[in-house]
Design goal:
mainly alpha; elongated; 4 helices
């Protein structure tokens, strides 16, 4: 009977390890999926930047980038004219949506220059 108790304890230990491994694999799948989505976002944004470098005049079309978390950015400017016309609160919202780090007190022209650089549009 004593030996049987030891076997039951061993089986319980094995089941515990298997449960941990199952959760670990599930967690790893979640992390891999999250990283894959981020890589796809970065790749798509890089393609958009390549297209945006050709937008050199006011009516030049700008390809929208995906925001943080791969979310579409509502109100992303479609042309250079629209980008240049953005007011301070709107450019701040765009900076936040893109996940760009900009000093809080940065002047408007610097914010716009940073956004232009980030989205691939040539300097004004």
């Amino acid at each position: 009977m004593l030996r049987l108790k030891g076997v039951k304890d061993d089986i319980a230990k094995v089941k515990t390890v298997q449960d941990r491994q199952g959760r670990s694999i599930t967690d790893m799948r979640g992390h891999i999926l999250a990283h894959t989505k981020e890589l796809i976002r970065l790749d798509n944004n890089q393609l958009a930047r390549m297209g945006n470098r050709n937008a050199v005049q006011g009516d030049g079309i700008i390809v929208a980038l995906a925001g943080v978390g791969n979310a579409p950015i509502i109100g992303f400017p479609g042309t250079i004219e629209e980008l240049d016309a953005l007011d301070d609160p709107t450019i701040e919202a765009l900076i936040l949506a893109l996940g760009i780090q900009v000093d809080v007190g940065a002047p408007m022209n610097l914010k716009k220059a940073i956004v232009r650089y980030y989205i691939g549009v040539p300097p004004a």
